[in-house]
Amino acid sequence: MPSLTAARLFKGFRHKEIEGPHSTIPEDEFFDAVETGLDKIEEDRQLRVRLKFQSQQSQISTTSSVIINQETDDGNQQSEDFGTGAQARTHKLWPEIDKICTEQLYQARQGVGDSGNGWQLFADEGEMKMYRREEEVDGMVIDPLKSCHVVKGVTAREMCHYFFDPAYRNDWETTLEDVQIVDNVAPDTLVFLQTYKRIWPASQRDALFWSHMRKITDNLDHGAHDVWVVCNHSNQNEEYPPANQGKCVRIYLTVILVCQTYLTPGKDSKTATRDDLTCKITYCSTVNPGGWAPATVLRAIYKKEYPKFLKRFTGYVLDQCKNKPIMY
Question: Furthest-apart CA pair in the chain: how many Å?
Fold first, then answer.
């Protein structure tokens, strides 16, 4: 990181050297500072993971039989209509939730090379491929992202379970500072207010959105055992905390995670082991970060951070599931 940026980080900075319409900080220094902040957050996460692993290994070595007996199948803890939206249908948000989920699932199922629609490959790492399409609104980058990935050893429901359930979110979403449930619509539908860690010189961000987890029962791809999705979409009404009223700039987002389970031919849900599981993942997002961050900086950060995010999340789910009963 340039010495000038380092000096500002540790000795303070003038008002015009933070994010805003009158900021004087050069774009390269802005990027260096944000990149350094994100790297520090990732280092802290890796340290926590190592310490947690060491603690677990110590417990296993002395009380392994107790730990094994305490393992439970999360699927047995959820009602039969979980993932159907049955309990959310009477909520005033349901028409929007149902409409957005249907639209986003349709878009996720579309190819990235159809009709010259502008998708550009920007990351290609084995089974993981990431595409973006350059778009701006009022000068703000809102590039849609589409990722395709294949992971062995987990099911679609497991992948979506760990993405949806707030109990696990701090383990894999490293920039989170706080997660609040502001509306418990139903077991499969929640409204969240998430606050993210401040990364100088950018302003602190928050996001208010509903999240819905659903099992898809129609138009399954050939050979797919099941399909689960999680859809997140920003929402604002008078009952929820207003945007841009305090220190945080509000992020507006639309995200869908689509996961499909495939089993080894000849296997079914009763005979399959984790070696027989393949999960195909499609992740689509459109995020308006708000504020005044430079477009070139945002695109450079997205290019670096999105692949890291998807690998970190899928790796986390694999680690969580490897010694547990399979959840369909």
Answer: 66
Residues 207 and 248: their CA atoms lie apart, in Å, by 9
Assess contact for 300 and 33: CB atoms under 8 A: no
Nearest to 256 by CA among 194, 301, 206, 214: 214
Question: How far, in Å, CA of 126 to CA of 149, rounded?
Answer: 9
Q: What is the pLDDT of residues 76-123, one digit of tens each?
A: 346 789 999 999 999 999 999 999 999 999 999 998 875 557 899 999
Taking phi first (over 0 means left), then psi (-120 to 50 degrees means alpha), and beta for anything else, what does residue 12 get? Answer: left
CB 246 within 8 A of CB 208: no
Query: How far, in Å, CA of 280 to CA of 225, rounded?
Result: 11
Please spell the DSSP secondary structure of 71-113, one letter per residue.
---GGGGS-TTTTTTTTTTTSTTHHHHHHHHHHHHHHHHS-SS
Q: Which pLDDT score, from 0 to 100, does residue 73 have?
A: 41
Q: What is the CB-side half-sphere exposure of residue 273 using CA atoms within 13 A?
A: 2
Q: Is 83 left (phi over 0), alpha (psi -120 to 50) or beta?
A: left
C-alpha separations of 5 from 8, 182, 204 in Å? 5, 38, 19
- 168: number of Cβ within 10 Å: 16
| Both tokens assigned to 69 | 């007996």
Q: Say what the pLDDT of residue 189 is.
A: 98
The CA distance from 118 to 321, in Å, is 37
Rounded Cα gap, residues 120 and 122, in angstroms: 6
CA distances from 198 to 16, 19, 58, 325 (A): 17, 12, 35, 38
Distance CA 169, CA 174 (A): 9
pLDDT in tens, 264-297: 999 999 999 999 999 999 999 999 998 877 788 8
Q: Which of 196, 14, 183 is nearest to 94 (CA)?
A: 183
Q: Are strands 205-216 and 249-263 parallel, antiparallel or unpaired?
A: parallel
